[in-house]
Amino acid sequence: MLTTQPLSFVSVLFFVLFLSQPLSSLSQSPPPSSSDSVYNSFLKCFSDRTKSSQTQNVFSQSNPSFSSVLRAYIRNARFNTSSTPKPTIIVTPRSESHVSAAVICSKPLNYVLKIRSGGHDYDGLSYISDKPFFILDLSNLRDVSVDIAENSAWISAGATLGEVYYRIWEKSRIHGFPAGVCPTVGVGGHLSGGGYGNMIRKFGLSVDYLIDAKIVDVNGRILDRKAMGEDLFWAISGGGGGSYGVVLGYKIKLVPVPETVTVFRVEKYINSGAVDFVYKWQFVGPKTDPNLFMRMLIQPVTRNKVKTVRATVVALFLGKADDVVSLLRKEFPELGLTKENCTEMTWFQSALWWDNRVNATQTDPKVFLDRNLDTSSFGKRKSDYVATEIPRKGIESLFKKMIELGKIGLVFNPYGGKVAEFAVNATPFPHRNKLFKIQYSVNWKDNTAEIEKGYLNEAKALYSFMTGFVSKNPRSAYLNYRDVDIGVNDHGANSYKEGEVYGRKYFGVNFDRLVKIKTAVDPGNFFRNEQSIPTLPIAKGAEVPEPGTARRWSRVGGAAVAAMVVLHVF
Ligand SMILES: Cc1cc2nc3c(=O)[nH]c(=O)nc-3n(C[C@H](O)[C@H](O)[C@H](O)COP(=O)(O)OP(=O)(O)OC[C@H]3O[C@@H](n4cnc5c(N)ncnc54)[C@H](O)[C@@H]3O)c2cc1C
Ligand SMILES: *[C@@H]1O[C@H](CO)[C@@H](O)[C@H](O)[C@H]1NC(C)=O
Ligand SMILES: *[C@@H]1O[C@H](CO)[C@@H](O)[C@H](O)[C@H]1NC(C)=O
Ligand SMILES: *[C@@H]1O[C@H](CO)[C@@H](O)[C@H](O)[C@H]1NC(C)=O
To answer: Which CATH code for domain 35-137?
Structure first.
């Protein structure tokens, strides 16, 4: 069985690869000449389709509001400069049918359509492009409706996590949702990319709690889970939204949280045992009681004029202080945790505390509704996964390296517990069995091209230093920690090959299924960005595979794809 199917598939691919044109004609045909005419034709189409004048919701570069609308959801100052590429048009839909019209009206214009919800993409992919592009900004689609009786909520793509937490808090002190710790992150990018926070060990990922979703597909149709089918629903549950359509929102299941939770923070420096502290953390953080999440922050600092490293545990315990103190006295005496180090509060207050509000119990909950940010530092992030503990000597050499580099910090996020209980292919997120995730993190205030290059190189240098300690074949990365260094796609003739490079790092064994779904739902590759899922190369004019065909391919899966790459090389 398995020998005949791949063969016929390979011969088909042979034709595909050698006799066909790439599908990417979209990105290669020149966009219409004048941006005025593009604006006018888009606006006419959009107004016709929505049966009203839409000048309020479509911004050309000459609109006086253009730059404030653009800037409102830029969260990285690196992409807020005069030389940052700007969209020809920004569309800000106010209803689902607006989104549908925006997709239909952009399609014939041959522009890249960038979809933006909260704008927190670390490399700005939701609002920049080196090709002519539009931004579809969903920040006005921000309804959150919580149904405590049903234990669920509808959360729109343009809502922020802070709004989601706030609306839950309004109705209940014992319900929560396992998602990111930064309240201004958008639902659209966060959930379509997986989503995790300080309850990952107790509950898993945000996408482990999806009940339903709504999406606008490439034909402008509004589809719920039933209408889109399980393949597409699976793909947008962590496979990155921007490859398949525009996510309008998700229906989520709420989780139970105790009335009292505990937070604490403990710091060590090299001269107070930071090496042993971090070394030991690896054996406790990912294995302890799933109610406990201990994030480890590692940062080079100067203290009393000496360069050293600070290791900080920041923790949430879903329970009382006494219980976590006695748990950690046994499991992690190096931490030296006492009750005085702990603060008890409600779960919602702990979300405020994690957002660096020291006085969480006195903070107005409404700060989580604040959207008027329009400031940010310059930043860069990268990610890695660790599957076996780093040796003590390794930690030592790491600290030395970090002091030598001087700026870049690391965040170790423990896994284990519930996140590992779901199958690796339950959602597109494949990293469930890892010990912990590393985030490389550097921010800076004043910028020049030179300074920026220095920081970006520092991030690359530490990433390269870590090679021996982290996952390999493929070296894994977390989609929501967007990092264009791991590969980008020009969507030309090599789109599939380029896509494999970053795609296997982000999605591991789930990459092939994502490609099949992408090929079935968006064969013309309209929804694309620098790291979107590529389509399988298919001859122009050839039949587009039906979802049924795609499923048949999944049985040949890896073998066929491997064969294709080999053929391509020759
Ligand atoms: C300060 C900060 C803190 C963070 N903390 C966490 C954390 O605790 N946990 C975590 O998991 N991640 C965290 N992240 C990463 C975050 O989850 C991702 O950046 C996420 O993609 C942001 O979603 P967004 O809607 O704000 O981003 P956007 O920049 O709007 O979008 C990100 C990507 O998703 C696509 N996209 C956005 N909306 C849609 C949509 N509606 N339909 C289809 N595609 C869409 C965009 O095109 C883009 O490719 C953090 C990021 C920042 C900047
Ligand atoms: C923890 O509490 C002890 C007192 O019990 C105190 O000496 C120590 O400084 C505290 N540590 C932190 C990190 O606050
Ligand atoms: C917390 O708030 C109180 C009153 O608002 C203030 O007196 C105190 O200094 C604050 N504590 C910290 C650590 O900011
Ligand atoms: C973008 O730059 C403008 C100045 O040009 C500044 O006022 C604004 O705060 C910046 N926004 C972000 C998010 O960096």
So the answer is: 3.30.43.10
Termini Cα distance of the chain: 27
Distance from residue 67's CA to the centre of ligand 4 (Å): 10
CA nearest to 495, candidates 533, 458, 461, 527: 533
> What number does CATH give the domain 144-256?
3.30.465.10
Name the residue type at position 353.
W
Q: Max CA-CA distance within the chain?
A: 72
Give the Cβ contact number of residue 338 at 10 Å.
Answer: 13
- What residue ranges of the chain are covered by domains with CATH 3.30.465.10? 144-256
Mutate which of 265, 358, 359, 362 for ligand 3? The one with the most ligand atoms within 8 Å of its CB, which is 359
The CATH fold of domain 262-344+377-469: Vanillyl-alcohol Oxidase; Chain A, domain 3 (3.40.462)
Q: Cα separation of 214 and 236, whole Å? A: 10
- Report the separation in Å between the CA atom of 341 and the middle of ligand 2, taken as the mean of its atom positions: 5
Q: Which residue, by CA, sits nearest to atom 1 of ligand 3?
A: 359
Question: Is the four-CA dihedral 476, 480, 481, 487 of positive or negative sign?
Answer: positive
* 245 contact partners, CB below 8 Å, separation of at least 6: 103, 215, 216, 217, 218, 223, 232, 236, 521, 522, 527
**Residue 364 burial (CB < 10 Å; 0-12/13-18/19+)?**
exposed
Task: Give CATH 3.40.462.20 domain extents, the chain.
Answer: 262-344+377-469
What is the pTM assigned to this prediction? 0.90
Quick check: 130 pLDDT over 60? yes
User: How many Å apart are CA 257 and CA 49, to the nearest integer?
Assistant: 45
- Residues 565, 497: contact at Cβ < 8 Å? yes
Q: Which residues contact 320 (CB under 8 A, 6 or more apart)?
A: 260, 262, 344
Q: Which of 17-26, 160-169, 204-213 has the lowest mean pLDDT?
A: 17-26
Res 31: pLDDT:
52
Residue span(s) of the chain under CATH 3.30.43.10 come to 35-137
Question: Does the annotation count 478 as an active-site position?
Answer: no
Chain centroid to CA 135: how far?
18
Quickly state the pLDDT bin for 34 (edges 50, 70, 90).
Answer: confident
